[in-house]
User: Which sequence fits this backbone?
């Protein structure tokens, strides 16, 4: 189930849950300890107040206590007697103001009450207090929680009762509860944040790995990981770097091989080409029977020459040729290259495109235009026109042909080396021409794509970053 | 096919590959040239002294000493046009070869027909752009004798090669107007739009060394930035 989350998400979640768990435990412990303590304090304070009040009352009712006389068996105190002319109600009114919400006195089978109704007190509590015990009990009076305290006041059958509201304590406990829950949530969130930070820190090498791997995937084969000395990631970094280095060597070796092969091919090719030219110069002198084979040989020799030149072109780029850049009027270049390649005027330049210039390698751009036009001429029913217009990245060059068009699924493959597409109807062609076109366009930071020409055939669209100057 | 009634141009072919020499000789002879061969730099220089050719075709990859040295030695001995053969157009070889004194370059694989076009362009007579212009052009203290293919300053002849002279004569014929690299490539070397403009730049540099009193800050042969070059008095 965790698999649905990212690695970072999982680390965050773990930290968050851990923090939530810890803070919950801490909160619960804090709650129980603090609330117990607060309740005990409250109960002790309430009892003290009531006991003090009872003592004051006793003094008022019975006068100063007489010392107890020692008897033969035990110390015996006289039952005190009520002083003359004492107003019980006045006496109770004179008690110091406390937080007590009700004061009631049970004296000589009679209830004296300032506030509160004795009927709210549980009968067994009254009995207990009259019996000579200090008692306290949580009760409900009018829906409010109160702590009732009963204290004997010196004579059998008499007792003093008070109750103390617990509202403020409950409110305090409520506040504490909310605070603790909020703290638990905040801790959990903090845990998530720490988890995020930690995972970001821990995953930073992974992000670096992703970045470098992406570079390598996009052909920047000299990209390397820096983390080789990292204790945890060194192994991975070293393996990755070794793989990338091996790949780089391999690609360089491939490029060198192509370069070497075509280099070696040039000498025999020169011999063959020049010999063939000689033979063709004297075509009229050839016996009729060999004229056609010679023609075939000449055609294929020419194709062979193109292939070697294309291979050299590709290996030159693989070898990291930086080329030269100069300011070029793109309309002039396209016109010169396209018309020469087609052997007739095929170029149509929009007036706005005439002044556009570009920092370009003339030789490479010439190959782009010439290859596209030759491709149309040789394999696609002839070039139907070359357009130069302002727009896109700066200038848009279109090369139209009269062939069957290119199937949608072949539209990227045709720009790969020897990737001429599934259909054989495009016939011969060595399959490097369009790959060279794509590379050279990319070299100029342009784009190339192939679409349908309105009215049938294919349209190659090259966009180059040209500007008015 | 050789033109009857015209003396065939002679060519010295310097290449260490016997098969290349053989096939190029056959093909170039068929194009109407007289071809002599040399397998290395020593032979080339000896042949040059013995019987000066109209054009030298020099492979830069020579075994005994490198083609650049041979090219410089040829230049020291003669102003004969030199076409060098390189493997790749993008390498430093092209500029280095031009700096060493080559007039033009061709790349392998090389076909006699293309080579013939280059040779014809190099051997073509100079025809200054402005026909009304006299045979004698004066630019500052330079006197350019077009038919005599000679440039003098204070009566002393400046040692220009044929190509350098042609370049100077074209610029002088333009009467102070700017000529673009493409125009110069076409007029002097017979190239179309896609000629290598480095050829022009290197030749301009060499020409300045010979005609300017201070080549670092040229007074006559000035650059029109982004446009080309012009010659002013």
Assistant:
């Amino acid at each position: 189930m965790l698999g649905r989350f990212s690695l970072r998400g999982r680390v965050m979640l773990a930290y968050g849950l851990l923090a939530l768990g810890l803070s919950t435990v801490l909160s619960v412990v804090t709650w129980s300890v603090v609330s117990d303590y607060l309740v005990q304090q409250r109960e002790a304070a309430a009892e003290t107040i009531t006991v003090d009040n009872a003592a004051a009352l006793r003094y008022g009712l019975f006068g100063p206590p007489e010392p107890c006389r020692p008897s033969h068996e035990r110390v015996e105190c006289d039952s005190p007697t009520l002083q003359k002319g004492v107003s019980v109600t006045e006496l109770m009114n004179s008690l110091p103001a406390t937080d007590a919400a009700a004061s009631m006195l049970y004296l000589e089978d009679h209830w004296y009450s300032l506030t509160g109704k004795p009927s709210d007190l549980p009968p067994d509590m009254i009995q207990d207090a009259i019996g000579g015990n200090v008692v306290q009990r949580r009760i409900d009076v009018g829906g409010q929680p109160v702590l009732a305290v009963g204290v004997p006041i010196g004579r059998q059958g008499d007792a003093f009762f008070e109750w103390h509201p617990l509202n403020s304590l409950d409110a305090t406990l409520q506040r504490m509860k909310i605070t603790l829950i909020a703290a638990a949530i905040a801790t959990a969130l903090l845990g998530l944040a720490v988890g995020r930070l930690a995972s970001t820190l821990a995953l930073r090498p992974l992000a670096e790995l992703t970045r470098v791997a992406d570079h390598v995937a996009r052909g920047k084969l000299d990209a390397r990981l820096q983390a080789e000395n990292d204790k945890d990631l060194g192994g991975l970094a070293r393996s990755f770097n070794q793989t990338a280095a091996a790949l780089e060597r391999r690609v360089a070796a491939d490029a060198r091989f192509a370069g070497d092969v075509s280099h070696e091919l040039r000498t025999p090719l020169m011999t063959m080409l020049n010999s063939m030219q000689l033979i063709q110069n004297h075509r009229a002198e050839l016996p009729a029977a060999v004229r056609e084979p010679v023609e075939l040989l000449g055609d294929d020799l020419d194709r062979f020459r193109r292939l070697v030149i294309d291979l050299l072109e590709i290996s030159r780029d693989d070898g990291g040729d930086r080329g030269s850049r100069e300011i070029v009027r793109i309309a002039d270049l396209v016109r010169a290259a396209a018309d020469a390649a087609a052997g007739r005027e095929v170029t149509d330049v929009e007036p706005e495109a005439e002044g556009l210039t570009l920092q370009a390698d003339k030789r490479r751009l010439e190959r782009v235009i010439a290859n596209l036009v030759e491709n149309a001429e040789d394999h696609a029913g002839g070039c139907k026109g070359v357009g130069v217009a302002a727009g896109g990245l700066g200038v848009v060059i279109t090369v139209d042909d009269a062939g069957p068009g290119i199937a949608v699924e072949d539209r990227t493959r045709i720009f790969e080396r020897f990737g001429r597409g599934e259909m054989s109807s495009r016939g011969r062609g060595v399959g490097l021409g369009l790959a060279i076109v794509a590379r050279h366009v990319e070299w100029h930071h342009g784009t190339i794509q192939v679409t349908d020409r309105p009215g049938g055939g294919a349209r190659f669209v090259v966009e180059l970053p040209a500007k008015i100057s | 096919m050789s033109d009857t009634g015209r003396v065939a141009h002679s060519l010295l072919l310097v290449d260490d590959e016997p098969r290349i020499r053989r096939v190029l000789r056959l093909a170039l002879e068929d194009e109407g040239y007289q071809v002599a061969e040399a397998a290395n730099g020593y032979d080339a220089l000896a042949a040059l002294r013995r019987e000066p050719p109209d054009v030298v075709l020099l492979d830069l990859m020579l075994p005994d000493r490198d083609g650049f040295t041979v090219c410089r030695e040829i230049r020291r001995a003669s102003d004969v046009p030199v076409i060098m053969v390189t493997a790749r157009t993008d390498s430093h070889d092209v500029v280095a070869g031009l700096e060493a004194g080559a007039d033009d370059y061709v790349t392998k694989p090389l076909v006699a027909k293309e080579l013939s076009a280059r040779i014809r362009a190099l051997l073509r007579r100079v025809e200054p752009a402005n026909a009304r212009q006299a045979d004698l052009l004066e630019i500052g203290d330079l006197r350019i004798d077009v038919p005599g293919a000679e440039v003098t300053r204070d009566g002393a002849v400046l040692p220009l090669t044929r190509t350098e002279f042609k370049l100077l004569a074209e610029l002088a014929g333009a009467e102070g107007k700017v000529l673009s690299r493409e125009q110069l490539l076409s007029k002097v070397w017979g190239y179309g739009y896609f000629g290598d403009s480095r050829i022009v730049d290197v030749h301009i540099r060499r020409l300045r060394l010979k005609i300017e009193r201070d080549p670092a800050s040229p007074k006559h042969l000035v650059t029109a930035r982004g446009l080309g070059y012009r010659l002013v008095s």
About this structure: Confidence is low (pLDDT under 50) at residues 422-430 of chain A. The longest helix of chain A spans residues 7-62.
